[in-house]
Design a protein that fits this description.
Blueprint lengths: L19 H16 L16 H6 L5 E4 L5 E7 L2 H12 L6 H19 L9 E5 L4 H7 L3 H8 L8 E3 L11 H8 L3 E3 L7 E9 L3 H12 L3 E10 L2 H10 L11
Parallel strand pairs: 2-7, 3-6, 6-7
Antiparallel strand pairs: 1-2, 4-5
Length: 256
Amino acid sequence: MTPYEQPPEQPHDGRENTGWGALVRDALRDALALILPVECAGCQRHDRALCGECARSLVAHTSIHSTPQHLRVYAALRYEDRVRRVLLAFKNHHRTDIARPLSGALLAALRRALSESATVGGVSGPIEIVAVPSSTKAFRTRGYHPVQLVLKAAGIRHARALRVAQKTRSQKLLSAEERAANVKGAFIAVRSLAGTRVIIVDDVLTTGATLDEAARAISAAGGTVIAAATIGFTPRTLTVRDIASGEGYGMEKGAK
């Protein structure tokens, strides 16, 4: 099974093209801004959903990390500054218009995960992409599943293999060990995954507790998790700041 439904569009890198095309595009943007005012999701600059500087901050520089259970994670961006503001706007302020720019970063991380993990253990064959699920409460609040929306924008099919099995309490004041205990049993597979190789996809890697729990649920259903891919990762120096501000991500906040 290939994860791609269609060749994805190349992400906008923030550089303005020259010529009539750029003039027409800018004229249309300015006209639309009079009818539907918009501001940049990263810096609040007026009349652009994403300004050039914030668009450039979403150009992927994929790095590799490891969860406490030694799952290899490919992360496209550092979750800080403009990237952090864009992701928070997308997840918490209904800025679904940012799904397309974010999809380019996730696609870069996922492509590397696929290329470097395709023959893990000397085994090759179909790989399913599985998104970490949102809770019912989070979906009702937002009206959409953030990770699934970005995958759709990237033209990537994902398998509906997991669901949220139980509620978790807020993790923002918990240690890494307490977070792992808090999300234990949070997910369950919706079907048998025997013989299936999986790459898990999530928005941001913080401690890795959520990804490890998703991997546990997949393994319990007979699947083999070969890697994970995320849009961003939280540098360790930012973990306390994000927890203190209440702006940690996903299940780390108790509502994925």
